[in-house]
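My main concern about presentation is that the manuscript never shows what a single data entry looks like. An entry of this sort, consisting of the sequence and the corresponding backbone structure tokens, reads as follows:
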Amino acid sequence: MKKTGILLICLLAVMLLASCGESGEKETGSVYQIYMVNMDETMVRSYEFQTDVNKQTELLQLLLNRLQDQPRDTNFRAAIPEEVTIPVMTVADETVYLEFSEDYFNLSTSGEILSRAAIVRTLTQVPGITYCTFEVAGNALTSSTGEPVGIMRADQFIDNSGNEINTEEKVTLSLYFANEEGDRLVKIDRDIVYSSNIPVEKLVVEQLLVGTTEDEMAKGAYPVINADTRLLNATQKDGICYVSFDSGFLAQTLDVTPEVALYSIVNSLVELASVNRVQISVNGETQLLFREKYSLEEQYDRNLDLLNTTAGVNEAEEQTEKSDEKTGEEDG
């Protein structure tokens, strides 16, 4: 009987300890997934982390700290290596802006993409945070091909167990810029190598924001959108592409007409086989007039009348045929 009593006491003690977390207290609060990168740098995986912290800035900082902690599973590494610091973190318009130290450049190409995916997936779980943007040593992060990475969201990164997340694609984009006078459109075909995790509609707008190269200007094509404009989002559904800029879009600093500024974006996006119309918003708002002329509540179709006359009639006819083919596909 005495031995039985001792065993019961031990059993109760074990049950009490099991009912408490490692800290001795029962875990409470919201559960978040902390993503980590495997040592072979071929995939990301997550583990659960629970916390009572709910203030946005404090929660973001806490999750960043966890992203820097070495995982218990020795087959994985922290998404943010120990030597990489984050001297600046700010939040605005559903976006967290992170500035990394120069040590971020020590990551391998595949490791950097996976780390980026892990960070974005982790931080966008925070209520009110939809996007992330990275800078390294004061400069905007660029891809392995030198293209700006821009604003990122969680669904850009494919869940996978292999290398899909690192896949790169090559595409030729038909982009519309301004002529030298700023009153007509000039079509430029640009070859781009990009991460397949980036939606192509976002890629199109980002390329417009980049402006034109010296070679393209020699062909008569000039930038259209204010370089300080920030793309917040670009998505498409049912043939309509929805593009959201920050307020920089309204501060037109280039000498181009309202028509050229608007249809540079519309025509470039409608070149995509899956897009027929475009709607633009500023900070998510559509009840605005762009350049006091165009309502952003409207969904705009392609406008070929603005094509530079030097492009020739044949090109306009070719574009019309493409438009008719799309219409036929929709009717089918």
